[in-house]
Structures are given as structure tokens and as C-alpha cells.
Write a structure and sequence with these properties.
Length: 168
């Protein structure tokens, strides 16, 4: 029997709950992809808009020193670097980071970047890919929010689309 292309997301509702200024909050989920094509796959991401509550937004992260973008990750470790962004690390079946599939996009678990956004007319951006057949390849995606003491109170939300494409 030949493998079928498949893509799974472990958890699609990731509530951050109450957040504390200057303390990054994270949520994670696991994606799993099987691509029978010998040319591999790509996984892309795009948000509908920045995190939004009423007329307030949580800005996209610019990482530690405005050195990350929707296409380039950079370290995001400073408690005074605010925003919303994500990291993806390839993992093995035991959950141990291997960075397989994600190493071209994120150096390690401290590297983040903001999501491309439909509200800014961005296109979805690749954050995981390989050029060979894979079965049950996994990555852990970490979504991070860090707010300033001036952030307006509210229930912020957005939608993140993860798109898996086989390469033929």
C-alpha cells in the first residue's frame, strides 16, 4: 500500500488566558505530516490579522532588536521585547528536538518570527520543508505572546492557518 499525503494538527484551540506584562506566555501544538512525494513538502503559515480585541492589537514580534520578519527568525528572549510570534522545531516521535524540516527557518527554540498576515496583504510563508519523502514527520510549534504594562485589557484572538503542500 502506498502512503497518502496527510497533515495533522494536535490542538487547534490555544488559549493564553491571563497574561502578565514582561513575562512571555507560550502555547504549543504538534503538527505531523506524511508526504509520499519523493520531492517532499512545504508547510506554510498565515494569520488573518494580528491579535485583536475590540480596537486594540498586540503587535507582531520584532524579536530582541527588530531583526526578525515574517520570513526571517531571530532570537526573542528579552522580557521587554513585546508582541506575538512563533517558533517551529522538528521533533522525533519521543518529542526530542531534531530540527529536521525546520532548521532552515529556526536555528533553535529561542528563534521566533511574526506570522504573515492576510490583513496586511501578505502571502503565506514557509516555515517547514523537506525535499524527500517523509512519514509522520513532526514539529512542535510554539506560539508566544509578551505584552507591555501598557497593553489594553481584553480577550485577544486571531486565526492562524497552517497549510501543508506536497511537492510534485
Amino acid at each position: 500500500t502506498s502512503e497518502k499525503f496527510s497533515f495533522n494538527i494536535s490542538d487547534v484551540d490555544l488559549p493564553f488566558g491571563s497574561m502578565t506584562p514582561n513575562v512571555g506566555s507560550t502555547q504549543t501544538n504538534i503538527i505531523t505530516i506524511t508526504s509520499p512525494s519523493s520531492r517532499g513538502y512545504e508547510v506554510l503559515a498565515i494569520a488573518n490579522h494580528p491579535l485583536l480585541a475590540n480596537n486594540y492589537t498586540i503587535p507582531d514580534t520584532s524579536c530582541n532588536s527588530s531583526n526578525c520578519s515574517k520570513t526571517t527568525s531571530a532570537p526573542w528572549t528579552l522580557p521587554t521585547a513585546y508582541g506575538f510570534g512563533f517558533n517551529a522545531l522538528g521533533i522525533n516521535s519521543s518529542g526530542v528536538a531534531t530540527n529536521i524540516g525546520t532548521s532552515n527557518y529556526f536555528t533553535d527554540a529561542t528563534y521566533y518570527r511574526p506570522f504573515a498576515s492576510l490583513s496586511k496583504n501578505d502571502l503565506p510563508q514557509v516555515f517547514m520543508s523537506e525535499n524527500n519523502r517523509v512519514k509522520d514527520r513532526q514539529a512542535k510549534i510554539t506560539y508566544k505572546v509578551n505584552i507591555s504594562p501598557n497593553q489594553a485589557t481584553g480577550v485577544y484572538s486571531n486565526l492562524i492557518n497552517l497549510i501543508a503542500i506536497p511537492k510534485y
